[in-house]
TrEMBL record:
Segments for region (Disordered): 1-27
Residue stretches making up the Helicase ATP-binding domain: 90-259
GO-annotated molecular function: ATP binding; hydrolase activity; nucleic acid binding; RNA helicase activity
Name of the protein in question: RNA helicase
CDD domains: DEADc (cd00268), SF2_C_DEAD (cd18787)
InterPro entries on file: DEAD/DEAH_box_helicase_dom, DEAD/DEAH_RhlB, DEAD_box_RNA_helicase, Helicase_ATP-bd, Helicase_C-like, P-loop_NTPase, RNA-helicase_DEAD-box_CS, RNA_helicase_DEAD_Q_motif
Amino acid sequence: MYNRHNHRSNGHGGGRRFQNRFPSRSQKTDAEIVRAIQAIQITEAQEGDSPQSAYIPKNRFEDFAISGQLKKNISDKRYVTPTPIQDQVIPAILQGSDVIGIANTGTGKTAAFLIPLIEKVCNDRSQKVLIITPTRELALQINEELYGFSYGLGIKKALCVGGMNERKQRYELSCIPNFVIGTPGRLREFIESRALPISEFNNIVIDEADRMVDIGFIADIKYFISCLPQTRQSLFFSATIPPKVKLILGSFVRNPITISVKLKESIDNIKQDIIKVTDSQGKVDQLENILSQEGFNKVLIFGRTKWGVQRLSNELVRRGFKAGAIHGNKNQSQRQRVLDDFKNSRISILLATDVASRGLDIEDVSHVINYDLPNTFEDYIHRIGRTGRANKKGVALTFV
């Protein structure tokens, strides 16, 4: 049990200030999130330590119909057994089917679509792949994964995101890459200036579609779909399928195979708990007490606002912690530098807003702390999914 005071917060991102800044939220929304967390705790207590029925994969990576070099690259990344979504999605993509993948973060979906698409390009160099993501961080993560999986295969790629060198990106596009990875704003800019001939791309991946709709990119997604060639392979990944996302699906995929990785499978390895607090000063002190305990080796802390996250990061540094923050007020190079410091353990605490953190895939995160409550339960699941990855155990704490 974690040290905690019986307080209740009405400051530093909570209470009245919270409601004034986000009028669409309510105490009911917060209560629903807390009740959902408590329900999970009750279920865990009822189940005790009884063994869960583990997913048994039908395939091994070496069994897939892919090239020897690609298999070597997978082995070099120490991938041995496919995750449930990889086990089901890779064969479906290899056989040419459109796919709807319903999966939470941390389930291995990036490799699930990259591996078969790399094989497809290796077999036919005229194939072109466009991968659309909601955030720069996720685009960078996919770009990094693509580099590892395609090593030695001579595959050209281009990264098209805002906040980075536009001239370099235009040059990469002029080299006629097989893979283009980008965010909606920059991709649309390049399409409209004819630097990116989207009609030539016969493989399209829309990743984290629900998050793109949340951020406000639905018009851009509809625009991209209207520009695509009729003959294509369409791959669609989303944690949930809300009504607006369903509208997109109808015009995007054709006779798709739907593969769903259940929510519980992605949170089985995460121990969840609630920390009760009262005032802003007590909240920071309590966070300090928690972070000072043993085992808090690599901690990801979520806040609601850019200024709140930065202020908390500054305060933790003042108190002697190695911490850094990523949020929308920092440019891409600053955010990437902080991420690299966290990945390489030069800092042990990373603070982030939801938008800045989308797509983060960092190994060995021991704890996720929700310093401010998320907007929805889906956001809560996204946050805590940053720990307990790759069958490792993790802990998620939520301040209430």
